[in-house]
Amino acid sequence: MSCKLTQRFVPGYLDGELDLSRTIEMETHLQTCAECAQELERLQALRAALQHGALAYAAPEGLRERIQSSLRASTPRETTERASGWHGFQFLRPVLLLRWAGAFAVLALCAVTAWQFLPGLRGPSSDQRLAAEVLASHVRSLEAGHLLDVASTDQHTVKPWFDGRLDFSPPVEDLASDDFPLVGGRLDYLEGREVAALIYQRRKHFINVFVWPGATGASSPQIVESRQGYNMTRWSRGGFRFWAVSDVNAADLAEFVRLLESRTAR
Ligand SMILES: [Zn+2]
């Protein structure tokens, strides 16, 4: 993982929001890169200062009790009973909890082993995992300041920007004449590698197109799916894998993909 991406993910890392593979990639990078480790320390110090400094305000004990009692008063009786029964559960005792943790660790190990040695198990779901990753990257990119690393509507600016930042040169097309203007590019991270993200606009919506070299040069037809209200299309062509994702409607995304595919086929 590059320094730029590591530093982008540091806040998420501090908040424990990254998935396991990204966390491992980050920690590996942080062990070897003083600059990024420093960035992490800087944010940790900032967080500590905010928590312990004059800006921090601890709510008075009385407020906590008032909130709890008003919650109790407004909670239906059945739920309250179940909640209080929960505290009586024997397995919450520390010793037993440790045993449960042990059993869980064994189970997790079995799952990881099975996943590694039985390709059939992960075959059908690898695209599903990637789809979830693509969607998460799309949503993350829409957070303030995350969409663009290079802002330009000119494909001759965006394409060279990736040179030296990636180990491949992604095909970059502008579709402004078809009302899908290119607005820029970004480095992103999928399947354990750095990928190009090209950003297009349709009215007020953004379309992220993730591009990276395929394992084989084979082309594959479009696969369309919808996930959590977002439309996604993936295909392979010219040795590249493409994933387009957006909240534009399915017809607009289909039109966009058709245009992009016909341009990259030339
Ligand atoms: Zn670094």
Structure description:
52% of the residues lie in helices and 20% in strands. Helix 1 (3-14) runs parallel beside helix 3 and helix 2 crosses helix 3. It is α+β, with helices and mostly antiparallel strands. The protein has a seven-stranded antiparallel sheet with strand order 1-2-3-4-7-6-5, sandwiched between helices. The two termini are 32 Å apart. The chain is built from nine helices and seven strands.
Task: Indicate the topology.
Blueprint: H1 3-14, H2 20-32, H3 34-52, H4 61-74, H5 77-87, H6 94-117, H7 119-141, E1 150-151, H8 155-162, E2 182-190, E3 193-202, E4 205-213, E5 220-227, E6 230-237, E7 240-246, H9 250-264
Antiparallel strand pairs: 1-2, 2-3, 3-4, 4-7, 5-6, 6-7
Helix pairs in contact: 1-2, 1-3, 2-3
This protein binds zinc ion (ZN).
